[in-house]
Amino acid sequence: MLDVSSVHLLRYQEAAERAIRSAIPKRKPKPMKVRLTGREIVEKGSVLRSQVDKTLRYNGDAFITSARTYNSAPVASERVTESGRFRVTFSLTAVGTGGRPLPVLIAHSGYTTPEEIANRRVHDLPPGKQRLIVEELELNKAEIVRVNGWDLPSVRQLVSDPDASPLASYTGPGLKVDWIKIEGPLDEFPAAGYRQLFHDIPLAQSVAWNPNSLGLVTTDPPVDAERVLRRFLPVAFRRPVEESLVQYYVQIAHAQLERKKPFTEAIVAACTAAPRAISPRRLSMRADCELGSFSSFR
After folding, report:
1. Predicted TM-score of the model (pTM)
2. Would you call 69 exposed, middle or buried from its count of C-beta atoms within 10 A (0-12, 13-18, 19+)?
3. Domains of the chain (ranges plus CATH)?
4. What is the pLDDT of residue 127?
């Protein structure tokens, strides 16, 4: 037996509620597909623009940077408008490397989501050859995907190099950026979590003035609530569930519907209710001997 305080059980229920609500989309995804040329990337950022003819120079619609760029003035994609999986394509060329490849670092971050080292990607650009680098990344809302010449000199090193003044005559290594394209979200809609929980219950506009808003649409809430719970409970308990326990949860959902609660709220209330067979103070779990993990509740 494992003691579980009422506080821990409450937090478990709160986490379960967040998980269930996260499976229900609140609005339709807004696909984005933005391609920025190298020149457009520079012109979008005042700090990056201030480095023209100092650490970078235009090359038609592309640009060549001869120094690592600051994280505060990144060479990056457009910011994503929502969380999800996105495909980012970079058109890059290593120049002036003396026949050796140029390693480039790709990373992503946002206003409130710092870069994580584990999410970095590194590619070697062959010398003098344009290469397309494609990455699919899980991004949070408002994140950008940055690219940087990993072993280019720092800005301070470059500006103190007499061979780099003027920059137009500099023959040292550089990273040519032709364009960066980002598109997504690529995730299937509705997501797998919604399909597993609600199966064939459709989504439709839920707010009259917002055409992108979504909500569950059911013509028979009591029947659909029972269908959802019968599918959900064996997954939640990780074992077949007795009919009496199924009816216990169904009654919770039906009680919410009788109080004129929305269908979604009735499902959330039932799915996060404390099992009647488990007290707030005691929780018993059976270990799966083969996998060595907790596999079911008793």
Report:
1. 0.75
2. buried
3. 2-27+189-297 (no CATH), 32-184 (2.60.120)
4. 94
